[in-house]
Amino acid sequence: MAYPTVPCPLHIFEPCYRLMVRRCMETGTRQFGMCIRDPVKGFADYGCILEIRNIEVFSDGRSVLKGVGKRRFKVLQHGTCDGYNTADIEYIEDNKVYGEDSEYLTILHSAVYDQARTWFNTLKSSLRVRIIRHFGPMPAKEPDPQVNPNGPAWCWWILAVLPLENKAQLPFLAMTSLNARLKHIRSILTFLFLAQLK
């Protein structure tokens, strides 16, 4: 699962995806879409654009690329090209709220951020080190949670590190309400806290 602002290293070894990555580099876009698999459609209806930051190509054609999530999208039409999946997409963003709704969102944002930070700090130090090596440190809390059209970076970071299956993570990409995303994250964190107490 790829999320906006979150690092996503990949090992590319299948010939069709080697071709796709080579085309991304040659055209200069350095970007491609990433979706989880779907047993019926082939891949899910929501995903995230990945930007290739660095790529190391080996003599046998395999490569390891360091990517980072950019923008969320909704798939409008599924397709294939030279063996790899393609899609027509539209970008999605969070809906902004104003007035009292904005004030409530700022309070909720702070509370869930603190809860997420506390949960992360309760993990074993060896696990925290592995997470930070893979995803980087937890991003700081933005003063304005609506400044980024994809929502706060820390939300995506915590979703990437929470012990959730891909199917449980996918709905978060589709949400255009930061309020709803924060409430769902809060519910998951509360469940994890309660599970630790048992």
From TrEMBL:
UniProt-listed PROSITE patterns: LON_N
GO MF annotation: an example: ubiquitin protein ligase activity
One Pfam family matching this protein: LON_substr_bdg
Domain Lon N-terminal: 1-193
This protein's name: Lon N-terminal domain-containing protein
Protein species of origin: Naja naja
